[in-house]
Amino acid sequence: MKRTFVLAIIVAVLLLIGVSPAIALDNVLHFPSAIQQIKDSAFFSNTSLGEVVLPSGIQTIGSKAFANSSLQKINLPFTLTHIADDAFADCAALVATVQADTYASEWCKAHSIRFTERQDTIESAHPYADNVDYTWVYTQAGGNINSLTLSFSTQTKVERNCDFIYLYDGEDRQLGRYTGTELSGQSVRVDGDTFKIRLVSDNAFERPNTYYGFKISSIAQEKETPLAFEKITCSQAQLQVGDTEAWTVETTGGKGSVYYDYTITLAARTLRKGTVARPENICFVPLETGDYTMQVTARDSAGNTLAPQTSVICAVERTALTPIEDFTYAPINGVNAKITGYTGNDSVVTLPEKVTIGGIEYSLSQLDDNVFNSNSTLTCVIFPESYTAIGQYAFYNCDGLTRVVLPDSIETLG
């Protein structure tokens, strides 16, 4: 009877702090996953507690929260960021379970609390609830952390295109948005010592919701080392106008996030400048022939900067022009003309730059309305730099079209 009365008091306390408790009858108290704080004196002098199971996500344990109680076992998750000095005062029999190199483990050492170490996992509920939006924040203790590699269990799964897992670095940059089984068995590298993982769900179509959610089964750390270049590679040493070139910059070390400031040049002429974060590739679609290079400067969050590095030459050749006979055209004025129709059957079409009409050479600058309307064989169209306008319905109902290469000269589209 006394035991039941004490458990009822625990239930009342949990309700007062705004959570719905789940209590086993063997002196083990399981806290629900939504709780983030245990307030001051919540279980002070409680003599029925044997073990407490805290969820990942809890952040604070208040003053005398479990002081002078009969508590013998408690897990202290990696998400804890504050434990009051007297939270477990006079708990003589207490042994905590912690993850190595976390706030909780350091706190136990500093307060002479006996503890055992284990590898914590970061995971959602299995299955997870509908209509949730919850974020877990993890910081690897110990300092001098260059990056973390997160390995997800093969069970990881959310409802495809309805529920999503978001991954952020310590500076709140989104690293990925995943659905279905896209993270199942995968590993993701995060620069720095901190990451955030967010689960967003709506109402499940299936009843009950049987989707597992996610589980990070291991977190591997790479200690901080000086930022250094490895190499720069390009996806193609030779390609044609309209193809995509992708440069991969490989560096090691650095403090926190690493950025690549790049400049793409053609015959000493700057075509593009930009910045990407490691490990993103640098992609570019050349619209002119010639030898392209990419120069990159790497820097990290601490301001360490490497000397600029230059890629090997990427040679771009002219794509075979589609025969002028496959087009119909008409003058616009005394200088410019427009394409009015296409009669060929090529899947890849490179538009011509000039046409001769009545003995006069015109520069082709426009693609007229409906030129490729309902063309079922077309997969790619490449515009040269002479074009400034594309008419209405030019690519309407082109079901196979997957790529249109447009120059910066285009001013009007549709």
Quick take:
With 414 residues, the chain is mainly β. It is 6% helix and 41% strand.
Written account of the structure:
The protein is 6% helix and 41% strand. The chain is built from 2 helices and 35 strands. The strands form 8 sheets. A 6-stranded mixed beta sheet has the order 1-2-4-6-8-9, covered by helices on one side. Strands 19, 21, 22, 24, 25 and 26 form a 6-stranded mixed beta sheet that branches. Strands 27, 28, 30, 31, 33 and 35 form a 6-stranded mixed beta sheet that branches.
Structural class determined from secondary elements: mainly beta
Determine the number of helices (DSSP H or I, runs of at least 4 residues).
Answer: 2
Query: What is the arithmetic mean of pLDDT?
Result: 86
Radius of gyration: 31 Å
Strand content: 35-45%
Our measurement of the CA-to-CA distance between the termini, rounded to an integer number of angstroms, reads 80 Å
Shape: elongated
Number of strands: 35
Strand order of the largest sheet: 1-2-4-6-8-9
Q: Report the uncertain regions.
A: 1-8, 11-25
User: Percent helix among the residues?
Assistant: under 10%
Largest sheet geometry:
6 strands, mixed
